[in-house]
Amino acid sequence: MTGPLQIVLGTISVLFLIVSVVLAYKAVRAMVRIIRTGQADSSRFGPFGPRMKTLLVESLGHTRMLKWSAIGAAHWFVFVGFYGLFLTLVEAFGEVWNPAFHLPLLGEWSLWNLFADVIGTGTILGILYLIYRRQKDHPRRQGRASRFAGSNEGRGYFVEAVVLTVGICILLIRALKISSDLTEAPAWSHPVSGLLATVLPDSPDLLSVVAFVKIVVSLVWLVVLSRTLNMGVAWHRFSAFPNIYFKREGTSGAPALGPLQPMTSNGKPIDFEDPGEDDVFGRGKIEDFTWKGMLDFTTCTECGRCQSQCPAWNTGKPLSPKMVIMDLRDHLYAKAPYLLGEKTAAETAPDFDVLKPSDEQVWASGYARIEGTNDAQAHRPLVGTLEEGGVIDPDVLWSCTNCGACVEQCPVDIEHIDHIDDMRRYQVLIESNFPSEAGVMLRNLENRGNPWGVSPSTREDWIKEVDFEVRMADGPLPYDVEYLFWVGCAGAIDDRAKKVTKAVAELLHTAGVEFAVLGSGETCSGDPARRMGNEFVFQMMAQENVETLNGVFEGRVPGTRKIVTTCPHCFNSLGREYPQVGGEYEVVHHTQLLSQLVEEGRLTPVTPVDRKVTYHDPCFLGRHNKVYTPPREILDSVQGLSTQEMHRCKDRGFCCGAGGARMWMEEKIGKRINVERTEEALGLDPDVISTACPFCITMLSDALTAKKQNGEAAEHVEVLDVSQILLRSMAPVGTPGTEHGAEVGTADDDVAGTGSAATGHGQA
């Protein structure tokens, strides 16, 4: 059935294929060379088994994509269609020469035909839904609220058009084979194309033309891809697999949350006591990133899931995690000839102050300030203002709260927080360029061991306010002491957090849990210093604390070195970051321990608490450490409570604004994050906004106080830790704070009947 038409189309197809393959080979080779210019990182390669399992589960199971169910399901069909129906492209090269061509062995196999029919149809329906969602969520309709704001829409349209066209061609070719009587596969194996065949002519030539169109569209896509190395919306189809395999938490398969990684240079942790002369501190240039960082930048699909969840972006700040990665990616590939030695930059930097914001900067400062490959690109500072030609604007860098929403939502496992904090490290340690108010916090940490700068003896003041004995750790703990209670800076110093400390201590005492505290021997865990980029101060404080803790736990075997803390930031640092400096402990959050004590019957809530409660997930307890259930179990155990979840909760919870050392920085741009979150909570008309973090209590309380002053919140609404609610439920019936009403929570003596000030509330 080969005629002149088939010979012409077949010849063109083969020639186009040769050109496309050559260009694709050169593109992949160039991309690999560029990525290999990054710093070494040997931690990404093993173990093979768990990493491969994670790759298969995430890719085939689409576990990250299905966090958004409908979009995830649609993308799954497009994904399976792209790889599973690749052989239909191979078959098309035969069909363009001979319309009756079939793949050997597979071509007439019923199950293959059924698979191709179902997945081909699913691909078309899937991409149509994704096209609909892109238009429904388009920036022209939603403005800044669109997750596609700042994405390259033209590239997205191109990829969608290619997928749709190829999917239609697959079904048309199959239908034309049926209408032209060129297949012997049973009717049940091609239900959709069989139906389509009823309206198509008997035309083998038309089949060859459609096969040619399928080939040309596919190869045009490949050529465009090969000529545009920063086209993540297309390249992620290939780079996503290694990016998932080489993810930071490859063994567990978890996203890159929880502990921040130590500073490394050339693949090795930096020894701050004796750093090497050529050690690179943080990321000050694009070539300072590791090869995995560069792979991250390459893989970004510009889908905007991270952006849609980012608390900074959602409150009018310039930070978009998506655009940070896009900016780094575009700068990397624009500077690539200089990194590879193909070009040499002039010794003097150009005058950047003539730059004007581009159209894209409607969405975020720092985006696309310099385009193309040129000396200006080569001399750009990684972080800098418009006048300085910076790739990332300082306001972008310092807006991050480290909440982890971006990392949690990213379908291709990009490690946004690690990259942002690495850039912060360079700004702090090398440039000494950071928000001035954060400098006060750092000096307080170095001089007094706490962010407030108060005397260490202040840490013991709360002990005088409880009516039972609290043991002080003096040397190794006696073996009858089960837990060391790590109070934390806020829990010992901040008045609101001290109430939580006293409530937890009283509950542990009631349950018969033997615990001790360090008192003035405790210093900050170092989390604020590390999260703002001062790794040196963190290392100093962490090593000091590890020395103290190892002395307290001297002689204890693993499994008996138990710490309980009320602060999720301390919980994360002590449990997941201190092993980096030799501190191995079993760290639990107070909600985990209290939930266990309730379950064991050692704490029994008996008094109904007639209050409507909504729970706010602290980021470092929830997303970073996956502790979602224990706080809710505690609330569920309290009779009379009516609980209702906020729209943004659990792994989509909204930050209070205090993480990433933002607790110690002024919030000068856009709407305050704590106000946004408090308004969401107040929308449910609660009596209590509950949480389990001292920073969250401070941020939410401040916003609630402002709302009360403006008459936008009822006076009886309060912010309480779950432990305070649990303690109220153990007080006698009728105790102030347990009943419902407008007066609840306003009386100065509104204590939960325990004889202590443990759950005092109603004060700012």
TrEMBL record:
**A matching Pfam family:** CCG
Q: List residues traversing the bilayer.
A: 6-28, 68-90, 110-132, 157-176, 206-225
Q: Where is this region: Disordered?
A: 734-764
- The answer to whether the entry has keyword Iron is yes
Query: Do the record's keywords include Ligase?
Result: no
For this protein, the record's Gene3D superfamilies field holds: Alpha-helical ferredoxin (1.10.1060.10), Transmembrane di-heme cytochromes, Chain C (1.20.950.20)
Which ranges carry the 4Fe-4S ferredoxin-type domain? 291-321, 388-420
The record's keywords, sorted A to Z, are: 4Fe-4S, Iron, Iron-sulfur, Membrane, Metal-binding, Oxidoreductase, Transmembrane, Transmembrane helix
Name listed for the protein in its UniProt record? Heterodisulfide reductase-related iron-sulfur binding cluster
